[in-house]
Write a structure and sequence with these properties.
Elements (H helix, E strand, L loop, with lengths): L4 E4 L4 E4 L5 E8 L2 E3 L9 E5 L2 E4 L6 E3 L11 E5 L4 E9 L5 E10 L5 E9 L10 E6 L4 E6 L2 E9 L8 E6 L22 E4 L1 E11 L5 E10 L2 H14 L1 H17 L10 H16 L16 H4 L8 H13 L3 H12 L26 E2 L2 E2 L5 H18 L2 H6 L1 H14 L11 E2 L6 E4 H20 L3 H21 L1 E2 L4 E2 L2 E5 L2 E5 L8 H4 L8 H14 L34 H14 L7 H13 L9 E2 L6 E2 L5 H23 L10
Helix pairs in contact: 2-3, 3-16, 5-6, 5-7, 5-16, 6-7, 7-9, 7-10, 9-10, 10-11, 14-15, 14-16
């Protein structure tokens, strides 16, 4: 189940599922140290009139949503059988590491009733279930979970008073036949066990009598720190300042952050505009304050390969940075590039992927292939760092950043790109593709290497390194010539997916692959070059998903997250992806010469909007028949590609609007 709501502040990130129950709890890095566990939930339930209901028991109508233009939830959960509606406004304090759940309870019966809200937390501190302690703290009337340097304080208050917890208990969970203390809540009472150690959980309750015409608000919070002093200070800050004031501060900050540039998204449908702003916020939610840009923090992908997307892929992060720079959000890009500088090996390349603290991530790329040593890289990931740095300079004129990164990034990567070339073809040596599945020489990789060399040339020029500028210019020109010679197939009338060596002989893989769109995206050829036109037409003809869902898949015969009950064919070549569908739309946008020709792009934006959940979260890919989200959600790359496409559309729309119609002189 992809996540339905995300709140974060760059140190803490919390994912909620479709039942508004906490699934992931990252701290102190975004995407690292998930103190929850795959498949586990932190339950929230309600008791009233002797009846009990958990939010995930099927008796609630739930709509996860955000406040428009803010990284603050505004969700509704209604249980008609119990006559109650809950309004959730979830957020993480922007300046301090505290999760808040502001829950307004509406009594739909015509008489006053007592409501009891129960929060059950089953933390996996440091990602596992041992050596933990759950303890009731009477001096604070709060619950505390701790282990080593991770302390979580759970507390709450009704309305504007410091009422605190009404009932509590601690116990064992996931230990023998112990299900957890959540079972203790179902009779409307907790047993009050004050401490437990080992494999533990806790449940706390908050009680309030509520009249039918007077909804009451419970503020629940989890403060995170590295010692008792940290969480004690955070708890005091909440009680002294008041949770409602903190809510206003956080809401106001995100509204300003999302709209600070006051973009006029002319010609963009209203729903698409709303998704654009929400996409910016969701991108920011996946960025750690120390610079890491995470692919996705959705842990449900664990069931696929016992691993997640909670890593920094330099390619994804670089392309996200390009989108952010074009949207005017320079600080996250600067932070990422500073982070990425430390990932570059002494030889000038970056490896597969990295954890948010900069450590090398898990990989499936071997160092040994066919008995020979190889560099286990996707070369595009190195090249695109230079593209991101150049884009930052173009948009922000941050020459100081370019100068600081010239030696440790531009020279190191640029020289590697020149050196890592096949002497026979002049193309990059073999590496892994952007889809991380195949080994060879790929058109996508070649295009990014060309763009990386051009970026190195331009960055050399603006920093006064003129000899390097000439070297990189010559290398880029040679690379372009080699790409056009080897990667364009006269036989097929388009660019091919890859070439590769088999027993010393050069072979061609003509598979239609959406990523070859980057030939024009990276500036190697203009969009209207006949070779590009035929290539993009092949992508549309061969990769279009011909179902009611629609969209463009990655490449012919794509198996990733394939539903084996479906009969895949020429009409159903794979699952539709957000990014690949937008790549085709971007090319059509570039080719458009009239306002009328922008209509297919607006239709694509409408299509993207149909793939979002109720909160505006976009997945990686969708089921081709049902449209259900597959893999992870949110995928940062999906949102950043959408942000960039809308910006391009706005600029093109304005340019076409300003074109004066041609007039002809009247013959006398």
């Amino acid at each position: 189940m992809p996540q339905s709501l995300v709140v974060a502040n760059g140190n803490m990130l919390v994912n909620f599922d479709a039942n508004l129950q906490m699934r992931d709890f990252f701290y102190p890095f975004i995407g690292q140290e998930n103190h929850s566990s795959y498949g586990k939930i932190h339950r929230l339930g309600l008791w009233v009139d002797g009846a009990f209901s958990w939010l995930n028991d099927g008796h609630w109508e739930i709509t996860p949503q955000y406040h428009n233009g803010a990284l603050v939830g505004h969700s509704v959960a209604e249980n008609k059988g119990l006559g109650v509606k809950l309004i959730f406004e979830d957020f993480v304090y922007t300046t301090h590491d505290i999760l808040f759940r502001k829950i307004t309870v509406h009594n739909h019966y015509n008489h006053e009733r007592e409501f009891r809200l129960y929060f059950s937390h089953d933390f996996y501190l440091y990602g596992d279930k041992m050596e933990d302690t759950a303890i009731y703290e009477p001096d604070l009337n709060a619950m505390l979970h701790y282990r080593k340097q991770r302390y979580f304080l759970l507390n709450g208050a009704w309305d504007h008073c410091n009422s605190g917890i009404s009932e509590f208990t601690t116990g064992k969970s996931n230990y023998g036949d112990r299900e957890g203390t959540w079972r203790d809540a179902e009779d409307g009472h907790l047993h009050g066990n004050p401490i437990e150690q080992g494999s533990v959980d806790s449940t706390i309750g908050f009680y309030k009598s509520i009249a039918p015409d007077k909804p009451r608000t419970l503020y629940f919070w989890i403060a995170a720190g590295k010692n008792y002093g940290d969480i004690n200070r955070l708890n005091k800050r909440v009680t002294n300042l008041g949770p409602e004031k903190i809510f206003q501060h956080t809401y106001g900050y995100w509204k300003q952050w999302a709209t600070k540039h006051e973009f006029k998204l002319k010609g963009v449908p209203k729903e698409a505009q709303k998704l654009w702003y929400q996409s910016l916020l969701l991108i920011r939610s996946q960025i750690d304050n120390r610079g890491a840009i995470i692919a996705s923090t959705d842990s449900d992908i664990m069931k696929f390969n016992k691993d997640t997307y909670a890593y920094v892929w330099p390619r994804d992060a670089a392309l996200v940075s390009v989108s952010l720079a074009r949207a005017g959000y320079f600080e996250p890009v600067k932070s990422f590039l500073k982070f990425a500088k430390n990932l570059i090996t002494p030889d000038g390349y970056v490896l597969h992927k990295f954890t948010p603290d900069g450590s090398l991530g898990s990989s499936w790329h071997p160092k040994l292939r066919n008995g020979k040593s190889q560099i286990p890289i996707q070369e595009d990931e190195s090249a695109l760092l230079l593209v991101a740095l150049w884009e930052l300079y173009k948009e922000s004129k941050s020459i100081e950043v370019a100068q600081r990164l010239f030696n440790p990034m531009v020279l190191k990567i640029g020289r590697f790109l020149i050196q890592y070339v096949n002497a026979e073809t002049g193309l990059p040596k073999e590496s892994y593709d952007l889809w991380e599945e195949q080994y060879g020489v790929f058109t996508f990789t070649c295009a990014t290497v060309y763009a990386g060399l051009k970026a190195a040339e331009n960055l050399s020029h603006i920093t006064g390194h003129y000899e390097d500028e000439i070297i990189f210019r010559d290398a880029a020109k040679k690379m372009q010539q080699s790409i056009l010679k080897y990667m364009y197939s006269e036989e097929h009338g388009r660019f091919v997916k890859k070439i590769y060596y088999e027993e010393g002989e050069l072979k061609v893989d003509p598979t239609v692959d959406s990523s070859v769109a980057f030939v024009w995206e990276m500036g190697l050829l203009p969009a209207d070059d006949p070779r590009m036109i035929s290539t993009m037409q092949a992508i549309e003809d061969h990769l279009k998903v011909q179902t009611e869902v629609g969209g463009i898949c990655r490449y012919e015969g794509d198996f990733y997250h394939r539903n084996w009950e479906y009969e895949y064919s020429a009409k159903l070549p794979g699952n539709p992806w957000i990014i690949t569908t937008l790549w085709l739309a971007n090319w059509k946008l570039e080719m458009a010469t009239t306002i009328h020709e922008l209509h297919p792009i607006r239709e694509t934006f409408d299509w993207v909007c149909r793939q979002q959940n109720s909160a505006g979260i976009l997945p990686e890919q969708m089921d081709p028949h049902t449209g259900d989200p597959l893999s992870v959600a949110p995928l940062t790359w999906s949102h950043s590609t959408y942000v960039d496409s809308v910006l391009r559309y706005t600029k093109k729309y304005q340019a076409l609007k300003e074109l004066k119609p041609k007039t002809t002189k009247k013959k006398l």
